[in-house]
Amino acid sequence: MPSVTGAQESVALGNAYTQSTSSGRNKLANDMNTFLTMLTTQLKNQDPLSPMDSNEFTNQLVQFAQVEQQIAQNEKLDSLVTVGKGSQASMAVQYIGMNIEAESSKMPLQDGAGRFAYGLKADAKSVGIMITDSAGKTVYTTSGLTTAGVHDFKWDGKDADGNQLDDGIYNISVTALDKDGASIDTWTTVFGTVDGVTAQNGETMLVMGKVGVALSDVLSVTPKKEVASTGTATGTDASSTDSDSPDSSSS
């Protein structure tokens, strides 16, 4: 995902809204011209002894006026939406250079290091952690802590053979089973340094390396100097704490 300011996407979004309302206004104008032409023709050729009912075409004129008013209101709402999207993207630029934690199962490997957290809704008998690359190839597996709560995991970006992997997008999968072999709900969050802002489908996204997360999925923000990497082993389950992290299954 490219790192851009999002301004071009906001402009494109605004252009789409403008084209939509402009099309509606043009159609209304064409329909109005057709109606007036037909009305003028009917008036010229009406029977003087049996004139047209003025109420009918008066009602039609009123309907045209109501449609025009609705289009005008839509144009104003579209303008507000466009301004709001641009303002949100501008504010998101302030996150660049900051460390964030966000709901996601896609972890950025930046400068040879990655970090994520996984949560267990209940105590487990076994926890398996698997990391795959963007092509779906498994590059690292290990077992995790089994107590309920949130566990912080630091990865030095090396595969099972000790080879340093390239920075990029890596997928996290956490599987937890209870003593009866039944699945336990898990969730994951990822950490990374924001180095760009973009927009996707009208939503502002923060970019960490090649991983994009929606601004609405950000859980915490800290200055980069306050989050120092302490793990040197390939995969370190650093801590276990209770958390109010969202209860959603990781994918």
**Strand residue percentage:** 25-35%
Fraction of residues in helices? 25-40%
Order of strands, widest sheet: 12-1-8-3-6-13
Q: How many H/I helical runs?
A: 2
Please write the string of helix (H) and strand (E) elements: HHEEEEEEEEEEEEE
Chain-averaged pLDDT = 76
What's the main sheet like? 6 strands, antiparallel
Number of strands: 13
Describe the overall structure.
The longest helix has 39 residues. The protein is α+β, with helices and mostly antiparallel strands. The two termini are 20 Å apart. It has a 6-stranded antiparallel β-sheet with strand order 12-1-8-3-6-13, with no helix packed on it. Helix content is 31%, strand content 33%.
Note the main attributes of this structure.
disordered C terminus; alpha+beta; 251 residues; four-stranded antiparallel β-sheet; 33% strand; six-stranded antiparallel β-sheet
Sum this structure up briefly:
The chain is of the alpha+beta class. Helices cover 31% and strands 33% of the residues. Helix 1 (7-45) runs antiparallel to helix 2 (54-92).
Strand-helix topology:
Blueprint: H1 7-45, H2 54-92, E1 98-103, E2 106-109, E3 114-120, E4 126-133, E5 138-143, E6 149-155, E7 168-177, E8 186-193, E9 196-200, E10 203-208, E11 211-214, E12 218-223, E13 236-241
Helix pairs in contact: 1-2
